[in-house]
Amino acid sequence: MSDERIERMFREGIARGWSRRQLLQAGVAAGLVLPLSTALARSAAGAPLAQGTENPLGVDPAAPLDVVIFKGGFGDDYAKNVNDNLYKKLYPDAQITYAGIQRLGEQLQPRFVSGNPPDVIDNSGAGNLDNAALAAEGQLADLGDLMAAPSYDTEGKTFGETLAPGSQETGIFDGKQLLLNWALTVTGVWYSQTFMESKGYTYPKTWDEMMGLSKELKGSGVAPWVTTGVHPQYIRGFVFDQMLWKHDPQAIVNIDNLEADAWKAPAVAEVLEALVMLGEQEFFLSGWEGLDHIQSQNEWLQGKGVFLPCGTWLENEMKDSIPADFNMVVAPTPSLPGDKIAFEGIFAGGGEPFIVPSEGKNVAGGKEWLRLLFSKEGGRFFAESTKSLSVVQGSGEGLDLGTAFGSTQAALTAAGTNTFTARYGDWYKDLGDTAKSEIASLLQGQSSIEEFQAAVQEASDATKDDPAITKYQR
């Protein structure tokens, strides 16, 4: 057996994060046990396998790294910073292949099928890969060793200990940490503080107050609400889901858990009755049905609508279109009578999920890239460049980055422990897609509340009864 083949197997195994035992097992299968054992012995004192504070994950310093990022609302400058100023500093001999793209599913699925996925992926945005399906198929590397590794720049703490409490819960599948959430995301209702103050308005804390103000706004010639009809997951996830959780937390837990008739619960109907008023009373901007998210946000920035459902990526996504002195801020959804969660409760948690494919050629390098991104240095660069918070504790301290950034921190402080994120859309993509299309039909007057509930419950039951779909529980 040639030395070249031994070296190739050795380097590929190290890049994939294999243990010494796994390397020996692979060598036995290939008839290389003696020479590979010798190679392992020789490597014990060498840099490529060193696993100390400088290289706790055992990265091969010369192994190529393939990075793919969703280039959406947060852009990708923060990822390029890791490539150029962090990873290359530690591993100058590593060649990094990089791409910032959108609609990751259609572009990357063929690479997973062929067994040649990237080493690290920001799997976000419309048309992304199905994380739950990848987890069920064993396509995602276990990140437990990364969570236990020393932090890059917080002395005395592990990587996991530097992350905001609760921010990584949605990345756990069957007890394993399979994805890492990067952005500390808050979703809710956005408005221009300047506009509201100039008119003497205050943000409505109840739905009745919201309907009253919306009527007044409409009478003045401005649309009370604007949202995207092309991507109805915005109104579904940022308004309906949040209102349902605040109205009856158990109702949305039952939905996540695929409980029988969960979508037919009285709480669901009560929230939908409130939302339907937006359509029935023509409180949406005319033509909203055909607007994508960028178009609807531009209409909002031009003052054609007052309230916009979105998340904390909004300011960075629209940074080139924001008028001077607009002063955007975020607020929770208004309360309904009988809500079990206070008005200040808001949807917040980790977003912008990163994954390391288990079949990547440099699994250890993919994990190391994440260790560097999720550092105070990486988090501060992200905050300064996007005006958004990361999950890295302390990375945004002392920064004054405007009203959007400030209102996000204020909302989190006011909410305290009253934060939540629904899971059904992430766990079960087809169910989430059905719910978003049905809520669009409902708000456009094309279906009734009863028809909405029946259609989405049918999709939920089909998901529950499909043995090929892995099920999850809250």
From TrEMBL:
UniProt-listed Gene3D superfamilies: Periplasmic binding protein-like II
Keyword tags: Signal, Transport
Protein family per UniProt: Belongs to the bacterial solute-binding protein 1 family.
Compartments reported by the entry: Periplasm
Quaternary structure and interacting proteins, as annotated: The complex is composed of two ATP-binding proteins (UgpC), two transmembrane proteins (UgpA and UgpE) and a solute-binding protein (UgpB).
GO cellular component: periplasmic space
Protein name: sn-glycerol-3-phosphate-binding periplasmic protein UgpB
Organism: uncultured Thermomicrobiales bacterium
Record bears the keyword Signal: yes
One Pfam family cited in the UniProt record for this chain: SBP_bac_1
UniProt-annotated stretches for the region Disordered: 454-474
UniProt-listed NCBIfam families: chitin_NgcE
